[in-house]
Amino acid sequence: MQLHITNGDSVGDMLKQSSIVQGEILCWRDVLHDGPIVAVEGQAYLKARASFIHETISLPSPLPAMEISEQQILDDFVQRQAVLDKLSHYKEVVLWFEHDLYDQLQLAECLFHLAKHPELTKQFRIICIGEHPDLDYFHGLGNLSISQLEALYPNRQTLSVEQLELGKRVWLALAANTPEQLNHLLLEPLSPLPFMANALLRFAQEYPWLDKGLSLTQLHILESLAKPMQELPILQSNLRQQSQYQGEEEFVADLRYQQIMEDSEIKLGRLFVNLQTLEDAPFLGDAWLSKELYCLSLLTPPCVKIDNKDDKHWSMDASYTVTDAGLKALEGAMLKELSSQLNFWRGGVNISQDNYWCWDHKQGQIVKQ
């Protein structure tokens, strides 16, 4: 039997419907650029991840509530590990990932586990792409149809020992309680895994910036609210694709696009696409964008104002505004106030006022203040 490891449920669900791709499906469900990695593996690690994810999806949000308990998330992680512990049962293991930060960190964790089985290396395969000829804007394998996924399958590549060992190094660096190992990796080309260098650079940029006190995602949010883009070709392309699926004329999509762009209020959908446009390889999902907006609104003073927000929820139709404090933060004039409120994890590093690691974009390294 074959085992297919995918970057989430979207691709996994499509592969389950395929008549060409056969075998067991294991969906990797984690958002590793955020939250604690307290160890490279083991029960403590799985519990910490399950707790963090449940805490995040339980935050006030405009999105529909996810009815899943912390124990269910933990059970999913434990079941995933059980599959990884029996890799010798499969005649072939195929990894399905893409080029962005979200996927590359999942890939590193996956390769860490596969590297424990050097005797099985010839059975390991990978499909990992950063573009597709049929799509103007490729954001991931989930954008593809079942037939397009099936067309990738014959071109799967055998994983090399070098790729497995590099993935292991990356995962150990991510789980370390200081970023020194990550800094070393940032100076290397990492050519066996062609998308990993850019992904690790983007991960490092999620540390608070030395001269701003906010992560690059947070800065992108404030920039998008302060000066929203007047053209969003990704949005127009997405709307046209949706209309095509629904059998509508192209002008209907263009009309929707014009209505969205003419609205002076910035709502979640437009903000989401604005952030995608700013990223070379978009990776942030809507749940994590909602989390970032919520956290920015809770700062003292708040950097973002959310209309009609209460302690549990706010509307999908809510609009977002950058505050005066947010504008000052973009200029680097809120550094002291922001650094005093830090308390979050990047991999194995717990960033706080007393353990203040930040991204120095001039040096291209993570430094301690």
TrEMBL record:
Top-level taxon in the UniProt lineage: Bacteria
Domain named DUF1835: residues: 3-118
Protein name per its UniProtKB record: DUF1835 domain-containing protein
Organism in which the protein naturally occurs: Agarivorans albus MKT 106
